# Entry
Amino acid sequence: MTGKDNDKSFIEVRELSKHFGEFVAVDAVNLRIERGELFSILGGSGCGKTTLLRMLAGFETPTSGRIFLDGVDITDQPPYERPVNMMFQSYAVFPHMTVEQNVSYGLQKERMPRNEIASRVGEMLALVKLEDYASRKPDQLSGGQRQRVALARALVKKPKVLLLDEPLAALDRKLREHTQFELMNIQDELGITFVVVTHDQEEAMILSNRIAVMEQGRFEQIGTPKEVYEFPCNRFVADFIGTINTFEGVVQTSGEGEITVASDECGHSLRAYCDTPPRNGSDICLAVRPEKIYISQTEPDNDEDSCLRGVIEDFGYFGNLSLYRIRLETGKVVQVSAQNRRRSTERFLEWDDQVFISWRPRSAVVLEN
Amino acid sequence: MSAVTSRRGDIWQRFAVAIPYLWLLIFFLAPFAIILKISVADPIMAQPPFTPAFSDAGGLQISADNYVFLLTDKLYAITYLKSVLMALSATALCLLLGFPIAYGIARAESGTRNILLLLIVLPFWISFLLRVYAWMGLLNNYGVINNLLMWLGITEQPIPMMYTDFAIYIGLVYSYLPFMILPLYATLERMNLDLVEAAQDLGATSSRAFWDITWPLARPGVIAGSLLVFIPATGEYVIPYLLGGPESLLIGRVLFDEFFVNRDWPLAAAVAIVLVVLVVIPIVLLQRYQAKAAEQTA
# Structure
């Protein structure tokens, strides 16, 4: 690390844009990623996340802006010169080569001596648990195995950064869960910086140290999974990550970090806390996650909490938890989730039951319009 | 009741499977057997102009005289060789031209792609024979090309192109190029572009990635296209007859002459059999090699 500027980030993207004709895929984004981080870029289809990843790999030339890696400007380097490797969404395992040939391909292009290639490839195959499959062709492998070939092939060159395009999208649920943790372990073991592109918020939450939520070519929020989930900075992020109930309202009184919001939607005044309270009379939105809301058949005797009355319109049983849709007197429908703590064949709540829902004022997120 | 219908279904299913075999039997194997039989007969002045396989006495009367003649007469060996070499060169030229075209079409946007494919197939709407005649009008000493060259002042005298090997190559490549492009297009279009990018990502330059990834994966298309060009080009008759000179004696021409001019049906049949063997042997060897290669990797 000698001679390197320590305040500089490992990956730095400066004012990076990509236009396809009239269409702006990536719009002057800035991004700093630290060494050894597992960073996710999360967004819906067409938000520009894949274009950004392809610019990092060198497959797309930016319209403007620069990319720095470890202090070096790599913006104009072709893909084959960048110390960056990519795992493709389709895995792109070479169908005419064996597993071993696939993994050794990158090292052969480096003109590494044969015996060194053999030992490195052996190491990598052991890491992804494919030692016994070295001489197989890709069409003799399962989807999960092909994915691991792609991973080993991308890691064998010991890149500074590994780019992963929707790494788990093609796997079935059980395998995904297993692979998620395996990816994290491998990343931990090798200390390589991972940049993951995904549309799956669950995948991003579990995998990453930090997430960048992207929409229409721009970052809406960059933060830890907890930050983007518990403290979304705007409606888009709140809505995109998980489910959330929103109550439109007008700020009535705003004191020291505490506000009261008159919400016609729920026919009540609601209390909430925020660091920089908005002005009195401004339109805001209170957002509450379904799992932050308690559901009870008797009125809770805690006047601190925001409490509303409604009837159960619909509910779904998921085994570990139940989801309720509750219609308030004003007609607004609120989603509440509750853990099924008790083991019983009888249902706790039924359709059309009168219930009270409540949450702590600190559970509500204040989103300004 | 259901047993009956299922058995009937069974028969239809078997029939459906048998159709390609029946087709080959009736339109390939049976004619081939007849030609084979004629090739071991002797020519006579009669109708048909060859000796029957069994004499009136009932004895088998066949001979390998025609084959011995073909192998001993240098003219035939040279003609065969020239035909095969010319077909090989034409195949190579078609591959050289066809690959970039097929690659371009496969990478074009889907709207343009269909138009381009249509343009490739469009010449088939006009008879093959007419298209070869059209080339005569183009290649003539006072044809379109020479007139243009002289008008531009590039040449004083017309450049002789008609009745040369050059004209035959033009005809062969022009006529058979679509048969090279279409199978190549089919394999290239199916190819996952991520593979090429993955190779580049792993350190291969664009040209290296082409030779490491695109080319080997396009091989089935290259083989199919090459066979579709090579086989008909070897026995081609019309193109050398119309565009080639008297010295470009190719095996198709020899076959025609033996049959219609000399009325030596048995010798013509032997020429045809040797031609089939010459074309079939490389294909069989190629297939065996491929099967072996597949076995080794498995």
User: Anything to note?
Assistant: The radius of gyration of chain B is 25 Å. The mean pLDDT of chain B is 89.
